[in-house]
Amino acid sequence: MRVGLIDVDRYTYPRMTFPNLALMKISAWHKGQGDTVRWCYEPFTPFDVVYQTKVFDETYSRDLPFESNADRIIKGGTGYGLDNTLPEEIEHIYPDYHLYDGTPAECKDTAYGFLTRGCPRHCDFCIVGDKEGLKSHKVADLSEFWDVQRNIKLLDPNILACHDYRDLFCQLMNSGAWIDFTQGLDARLCTAEAIAWINSLKIKRLHFAWDDPKKDLKPHFERLNKLLIEKDHRKRIVYVLTNHGSTLNEDLYRIYTLEALGFDADVRVFDKPNAPKEIRRLQRWCNNRIIHAKCKRFEEYKE
């Protein structure tokens, strides 16, 4: 078969470096069947089947302005809905990391994958609860997507909420690889024991989140600051959700509190295309490290 692949998010944002995990698995499965797999970003080359996938919805990722020349087109990913999943034989295959060779992707010597799925928090801005369930559960061992790469990027939504997190952290520790928790660790679940497990890893980057300003997570970040071995604020990043039921003062309280405790705030804007200009200015001020280093207070920031 002639198989075509379309990474819609990368088409919309050509400089995107994050690869699409589902496409890497689809590629691996088809190549294992002896099929020919290639990218499909023009309407002329004929294919037997084209897989078109995206993570973000139409607000952020626009589809290609043409229909692929294929007998069958399969669209998947959360950008198209929450009811599409990969078949089990593809979901649990080792990804084709060579798919992104020569493209702006961070695949070199890096493994990507999920050890767990699901999250009990069910935040109203997040799709994980509806898509993966309200219980964090183990879905794979590390060997399913890692084979001695130096770096591991985990996509788990809430690994510390999983009953098996100790076993999974033991696998990560034994890998000797640099670990990046890309989607964030739950600060509320960072007990002294959990932090001890985190300290046992080679940390590339730690991500946490303080999304709801009505919940005071300051005590949890104080405990993290006290017990974490990693003290470099550039490796201790906290997502701060804005434009979702919070005031500018509440946003600034979270940012200033985190910075005082030695964390880097990473402002995320909900429904950014329709967000107020002041919130977009806040994100630019906070997330641009050069600007932020020269102007520590938003109240003093002028574009």
Can you describe what's shown?
This protein is α/β, with parallel strands linked by helices and 303 residues long. The protein has a domain at 1-89. Helices cover 28% and strands 20% of the residues. The protein is built from ten helices and twelve strands. It has helices at residues 8-12, 21-32, 88-91, 128-132, 165-175, 192-199, 218-227, 248-260, 277-287, 289-294; strands at residues 2-7, 36-39, 47-53, 70-76, 110-113, 116-117, 137-138, 151-154, 178-181, 202-209, 236-242, 264-269. The chain has a six-stranded parallel β-sheet. It has a four-stranded parallel β-sheet with strand order 2-1-3-4. Strands 6-7 form a two-stranded antiparallel sheet. β10 (202-209), α7 and β11 (236-242) form a beta-alpha-beta unit. The protein is globular and about 55 Å long. The termini are far apart.
Give the topology, please.
Blueprint: E1 2-7, H1 8-12, H2 21-32, E2 36-39, E3 47-53, E4 70-76, H3 88-91, E5 110-113, E6 116-117, H4 128-132, E7 137-138, E8 151-154, H5 165-175, E9 178-181, H6 192-199, E10 202-209, H7 218-227, E11 236-242, H8 248-260, E12 264-269, H9 277-287, H10 289-294
Parallel strand pairs: 1-2, 1-3, 3-4, 5-8, 8-9, 9-10, 10-11, 11-12
Antiparallel strand pairs: 6-7
Structural category is alpha/beta
Which oligomeric form is depicted?
A: single chain
Mean pLDDT: 95
Q: Major sheet, described briefly? A: 6 strands, parallel
Strand content range? 15-25%
Could you spell the SSE succession in H and E letters?
EHHEEEHEEHEEHEHEHEHEHH
Q: How many H/I helical runs?
A: 10
Separation, N- and C-terminal Cα atoms? 54 Å
Largest beta sheet: strand ordering:
5-8-9-10-11-12
Low-confidence stretches: none
* Estimated helix fraction: 25-40%
Question: Outline, from the CA principal axes?
Answer: globular
Number of strands: 12
- Radius of gyration, CA atoms, in whole angstroms: 20 Å
